[in-house]
Protein backbone atom coordinates (compact mmCIF):
# COMPACT_ATOMS: atom_id res chain seq x y z
CA UNK A 1 0.00 0.00 0.00
CA UNK A 2 3.05 2.24 0.26
CA UNK A 3 5.24 3.69 -2.47
CA UNK A 4 2.46 4.14 -4.97
CA UNK A 5 3.43 5.28 -8.46
CA UNK A 6 1.47 7.97 -10.24
CA UNK A 7 0.01 5.30 -12.54
CA UNK A 8 -1.20 3.25 -9.55
CA UNK A 9 -2.76 6.34 -7.99
CA UNK A 10 -4.63 7.16 -11.22
CA UNK A 11 -5.80 3.56 -11.63
CA UNK A 12 -7.11 3.43 -8.07
CA UNK A 13 -8.87 6.78 -8.45
CA UNK A 14 -10.70 5.61 -11.57
CA UNK A 15 -11.49 2.19 -10.05
CA UNK A 16 -12.87 3.66 -6.84
CA UNK A 17 -14.95 6.26 -8.64
CA UNK A 18 -16.57 3.46 -10.64
CA UNK A 19 -17.19 1.42 -7.47
CA UNK A 20 -18.65 4.48 -5.78
CA UNK A 21 -21.34 4.83 -8.43
CA UNK A 22 -22.14 1.12 -8.40
CA UNK A 23 -22.30 0.77 -4.63
CA UNK A 24 -24.30 3.96 -4.14
CA UNK A 25 -26.99 3.04 -6.65
CA UNK A 26 -27.15 -0.49 -5.22
CA UNK A 27 -27.95 0.75 -1.72
CA UNK A 28 -30.47 3.32 -2.97
CA UNK A 29 -32.06 0.79 -5.33
CA UNK A 30 -32.36 -1.90 -2.69
CA UNK A 31 -33.85 0.61 -0.25
CA UNK A 32 -36.40 1.59 -2.90
CA UNK A 33 -37.28 -2.05 -3.57
CA UNK A 34 -37.89 -2.60 0.14
CA UNK A 35 -40.08 0.47 0.45
CA UNK A 36 -37.92 3.44 1.46
CA UNK A 37 -38.13 6.20 -1.14
CA UNK A 38 -35.87 8.49 0.90
CA UNK A 39 -32.59 7.83 -0.97
CA UNK A 40 -34.41 8.35 -4.29
CA UNK A 41 -35.85 11.66 -3.06
CA UNK A 42 -32.34 12.63 -1.96
CA UNK A 43 -31.12 12.11 -5.54
CA UNK A 44 -29.07 9.02 -4.66
CA UNK A 45 -30.86 6.55 -6.94
CA UNK A 46 -28.32 7.12 -9.70
CA UNK A 47 -25.13 5.44 -10.92
CA UNK A 48 -23.50 8.88 -11.18
CA UNK A 49 -20.45 8.36 -8.94
CA UNK A 50 -20.06 12.03 -8.11
CA UNK A 51 -23.43 11.97 -6.38
CA UNK A 52 -22.09 9.35 -3.96
CA UNK A 53 -18.41 10.30 -3.81
CA UNK A 54 -16.83 11.16 -0.47
CA UNK A 55 -13.49 12.90 -1.05
CA UNK A 56 -11.91 11.61 2.16
CA UNK A 57 -13.19 8.13 1.33
CA UNK A 58 -11.56 8.46 -2.10
CA UNK A 59 -8.20 9.44 -0.60
CA UNK A 60 -8.44 6.52 1.83
CA UNK A 61 -9.19 4.18 -1.07
CA UNK A 62 -6.16 5.35 -3.04
CA UNK A 63 -3.84 4.84 -0.08
CA UNK A 64 -5.32 1.69 1.47
CA UNK A 65 -7.48 0.09 -1.29
CA UNK A 66 -10.49 0.65 0.95
CA UNK A 67 -12.74 3.65 1.40
CA UNK A 68 -16.35 4.69 1.71
CA UNK A 69 -19.08 6.55 -0.10
CA UNK A 70 -21.10 9.47 1.20
CA UNK A 71 -23.51 7.92 3.74
CA UNK A 72 -27.09 7.38 2.61
CA UNK A 73 -30.05 8.07 4.83
CA UNK A 74 -32.18 4.92 5.03
CA UNK A 75 -35.14 4.70 7.40
CA UNK A 76 -35.71 1.19 8.81
CA UNK A 77 -39.30 2.17 9.66
CA UNK A 78 -40.05 2.54 5.94
CA UNK A 79 -38.54 -0.81 4.95
CA UNK A 80 -40.23 -4.15 4.57
CA UNK A 81 -38.70 -6.18 7.35
CA UNK A 82 -37.71 -3.08 9.30
CA UNK A 83 -34.27 -3.45 10.82
CA UNK A 84 -33.80 -6.88 9.22
CA UNK A 85 -34.52 -5.25 5.88
CA UNK A 86 -31.78 -2.72 6.57
CA UNK A 87 -29.32 -5.50 7.41
CA UNK A 88 -30.30 -7.24 4.17
CA UNK A 89 -29.63 -4.06 2.18
CA UNK A 90 -26.13 -3.70 3.62
CA UNK A 91 -25.11 -7.32 3.09
CA UNK A 92 -26.63 -7.62 -0.37
CA UNK A 93 -25.19 -4.30 -1.57
CA UNK A 94 -21.70 -5.31 -0.43
CA UNK A 95 -22.04 -8.78 -1.96
CA UNK A 96 -23.25 -7.32 -5.26
CA UNK A 97 -20.33 -4.89 -5.21
CA UNK A 98 -17.97 -7.87 -5.16
CA UNK A 99 -20.09 -9.36 -7.94
CA UNK A 100 -19.47 -6.24 -9.97
CA UNK A 101 -15.75 -6.78 -9.41
CA UNK A 102 -16.14 -10.26 -10.89
CA UNK A 103 -17.92 -8.76 -13.90
CA UNK A 104 -15.02 -6.33 -14.34
CA UNK A 105 -12.64 -9.29 -14.57
CA UNK A 106 -14.89 -10.86 -17.18
CA UNK A 107 -14.48 -7.77 -19.36
CA UNK A 108 -10.73 -8.27 -19.72
CA UNK A 109 -10.90 -10.57 -22.77
CA UNK A 110 -13.38 -8.37 -24.72
CA UNK A 111 -11.22 -5.36 -23.90
CA UNK A 112 -8.18 -7.01 -25.50
CA UNK A 113 -10.24 -7.96 -28.52
CA UNK A 114 -11.76 -4.58 -29.30
CA UNK A 115 -9.25 -2.00 -28.08
CA UNK A 116 -5.79 -1.06 -29.33
CA UNK A 117 -3.15 -2.54 -27.05
CA UNK A 118 -1.92 0.90 -25.92
CA UNK A 119 -5.30 1.72 -24.37
CA UNK A 120 -6.23 -1.84 -23.49
CA UNK A 121 -3.33 -2.16 -21.05
CA UNK A 122 -4.56 0.78 -18.98
CA UNK A 123 -8.16 -0.44 -19.07
CA UNK A 124 -7.00 -3.88 -17.93
CA UNK A 125 -5.22 -2.30 -14.97
CA UNK A 126 -8.42 -0.47 -14.04
CA UNK A 127 -10.53 -3.63 -14.38
CA UNK A 128 -8.11 -5.57 -12.17
CA UNK A 129 -8.14 -2.73 -9.63
CA UNK A 130 -11.95 -2.65 -9.61
CA UNK A 131 -12.03 -6.37 -8.85
CA UNK A 132 -9.40 -6.19 -6.11
CA UNK A 133 -10.75 -3.01 -4.52
CA UNK A 134 -14.32 -4.32 -4.60
CA UNK A 135 -13.29 -7.08 -2.20
CA UNK A 136 -11.33 -4.79 0.12
CA UNK A 137 -14.12 -2.21 -0.02
CA UNK A 138 -16.84 -4.74 0.82
CA UNK A 139 -14.95 -6.27 3.75
CA UNK A 140 -13.94 -2.88 5.14
CA UNK A 141 -17.49 -1.56 4.88
CA UNK A 142 -18.81 -4.43 6.97
CA UNK A 143 -17.40 -2.61 10.00
CA UNK A 144 -20.54 -1.29 11.72
CA UNK A 145 -19.50 2.33 12.04
CA UNK A 146 -20.42 5.47 10.09
CA UNK A 147 -19.36 6.70 7.57
CA UNK A 148 -18.97 3.14 6.27
CA UNK A 149 -21.93 1.31 4.75
CA UNK A 150 -21.72 -0.93 7.80
CA UNK A 151 -22.83 2.09 9.81
CA UNK A 152 -26.33 1.09 8.70
CA UNK A 153 -25.83 -2.13 10.65
CA UNK A 154 -25.27 -0.01 13.74
CA UNK A 155 -28.41 1.96 12.86
CA UNK A 156 -30.38 -1.29 12.77
CA UNK A 157 -28.96 -2.56 16.06
CA UNK A 158 -28.58 0.59 18.15
CA UNK A 159 -30.07 3.72 16.53
CA UNK A 160 -29.09 6.05 19.37
CA UNK A 161 -25.46 4.92 19.23
CA UNK A 162 -25.51 5.40 15.46
CA UNK A 163 -26.77 8.97 15.92
CA UNK A 164 -23.90 9.76 18.28
CA UNK A 165 -21.19 8.18 16.12
CA UNK A 166 -22.58 9.77 12.95
CA UNK A 167 -21.77 13.20 14.32
CA UNK A 168 -18.10 12.21 14.35
CA UNK A 169 -18.21 10.08 11.18
CA UNK A 170 -15.34 11.88 9.44
CA UNK A 171 -12.95 11.24 12.33
CA UNK A 172 -14.10 7.64 12.65
CA UNK A 173 -13.41 7.10 8.96
CA UNK A 174 -9.98 8.70 9.20
CA UNK A 175 -9.16 6.56 12.24
CA UNK A 176 -10.17 3.36 10.47
CA UNK A 177 -8.21 4.35 7.36
CA UNK A 178 -5.15 5.06 9.54
CA UNK A 179 -5.44 1.60 11.09
CA UNK A 180 -5.64 0.08 7.61
CA UNK A 181 -2.58 2.06 6.53
CA UNK A 182 -0.46 1.26 9.58
CA UNK A 183 -1.34 -2.44 9.62
CA UNK A 184 -1.38 -2.76 5.82
CA UNK A 185 -4.83 -4.25 6.18
CA UNK A 186 -3.57 -7.19 8.23
CA UNK A 187 -6.94 -7.75 9.92
CA UNK A 188 -8.70 -8.01 6.53
CA UNK A 189 -5.93 -9.78 4.61
CA UNK A 190 -6.92 -13.34 5.63
CA UNK A 191 -10.42 -12.73 4.28
CA UNK A 192 -9.58 -10.61 1.25
CA UNK A 193 -6.88 -12.71 -0.37
CA UNK A 194 -8.87 -15.96 -0.74
CA UNK A 195 -11.81 -14.05 -2.25
CA UNK A 196 -9.55 -12.19 -4.67
CA UNK A 197 -7.81 -15.45 -5.64
CA UNK A 198 -11.21 -17.06 -6.24
CA UNK A 199 -12.32 -14.19 -8.48
CA UNK A 200 -9.09 -14.34 -10.46
CA UNK A 201 -9.62 -18.06 -11.09
Automatic annotation (TrEMBL):
InterPro entries per record: Metallopeptidase_M50B
Coiled-coil regions listed in the entry: none
TM region positions: 9-35, 55-72, 84-107, 119-140, 176-200
Keywords: Membrane, Transmembrane, Transmembrane helix
Protein name per UniProt: Site-2 protease family protein
